[in-house]
Amino acid sequence: MSDALLRALSTVQDPELHRDLVSLGMIERAELRGDVAQVKVNLTTPACPLKGQIEREVRAAVLAVAGVRELELVFGAMVRPPAQPPLPGVKHVVLVGSGKGGVGKSSVAVNIAASLAADGARVGLLDADVYGPSVAHMLGQGSAKITANTDRKMQPIEAHGMRFVSMANLTPAGQALVWRGPMLHSAIGQFLKDAAWGELDYLIVDLPPGTGDVQLSLTQTIQVTGAVIVTTPQDVALIDAARAIDMFRKASVPVLGVVENMSYFVAPDTGHTYDLFGRGGSRKLGEQFPLLGEVPLEIGVREDADAGRPAVLAHPQSAAALALRGVARRLAGQISVRTLADLPEQLPVV
Ligand SMILES: Nc1ncnc2c1ncn2[C@@H]1O[C@H](COP(=O)(O)OP(=O)(O)OP(=O)(O)O)[C@@H](O)[C@H]1O
């Protein structure tokens, strides 16, 4: 490594982590070949929301070093696990919850997972909404069946770049589940621990709506990185979202951010924007939670879900898909912030 380049790179801060790239262990290579600098930066997540800014600042710093005429810059990514990973091979478990049903929690969970996977992360999705599992349908895998692998573990189903497990793929279609708390507790534990998740950067968990047994069970079974709250902007939804936030607080689960879904509607024929439920209402939940994004109500989101393809993949340029991509990247950023805040001053190079 070139000392001059490292000195220059140590003046560049990660904009979210407020620490320099060198002490964060993000510089894998910094070499001078003649007057060409070759630098490799490992971001803390492949879904880094501020990659463009980091790239600009690295360029400016390196090209200001005496004798450097050109920069060959490559990016990699390495998601850092917390001091205590939640499950072997799984770095982060993130819960997606809502105070009330029908606000689009599963849609948001599926699109966050698909978006992180599209950015290059290794992603799992656990459908813990055992009473109303809709993830399998939204991923076009409603009739797939979960099988056991040679170690007698549940083999997650692969779709759209992620692995997922859903009760819908274990029970015959159309049958209701009539389980009580202790059975649910053991089912969730099995989904987490007896599924062959393999190596994952993020395991996204779609919770049932509300504040019941499954939510508690999950927070007691493993150390989760945090929770995302999905809400719509009207007061009745926000009251329930506040209750969900309170539940996570009592269970010592950090709230990583809030997603305002069905935030507004743009009429496709006139282009007029309607704030059907009062856009921006989720700010009433408090300033302490980052707003991860405002996702418009869009017919395509529902159509894509029913066609079994996440909107972020099916119609990546739609306003809803772009908002959902932003949600996933901001969430990944928040996870890095949480994790690195708890790690030592000088991190090893990854
Ligand atoms: N932004 C959106 N625009 C249009 N339709 C949406 C949007 N978000 C969700 N939907 C649709 O609303 C319906 C409910 O969404 P979803 O199942 O994701 O909600 P949920 O909160 O998980 O529900 P439940 O709590 O009952 O499981 C679905 O048909 C979904 O396709």
TrEMBL record:
It comes from the Bacteria. Keywords: ATP-binding, Hydrolase, Iron, Iron-sulfur, Metal-binding, Nucleotide-binding. The keyword Iron-sulfur applies. InterPro entries: FSCA_dom_sf (IPR034904), MIP18-like (IPR002744), Mrp-like_CS (IPR000808), Mrp/NBP35_ATP-bd (IPR019591), NUBPL-like (IPR044304), P-loop_NTPase (IPR027417), YlxH/NBP35 (IPR033756). Residues 3-70 form the MIP18 family-like domain. One of its GO terms (biological process) is iron-sulfur cluster assembly. GO terms for molecular function: 4 iron, 4 sulfur cluster binding; ATP binding; ATP hydrolysis activity; ATP-dependent FeS chaperone activity; metal ion binding. ATP binds at G99, K100, G101, G102, V103, G104, K105, S106. Binds and transfers iron-sulfur (Fe-S) clusters to target apoproteins. Can hydrolyze ATP. Homodimer. This is Iron-sulfur cluster carrier protein. It comes from Deinococcus reticulitermitis. The lineage of its organism: Bacteria, Thermotogati, Deinococcota, Deinococci, Deinococcales.
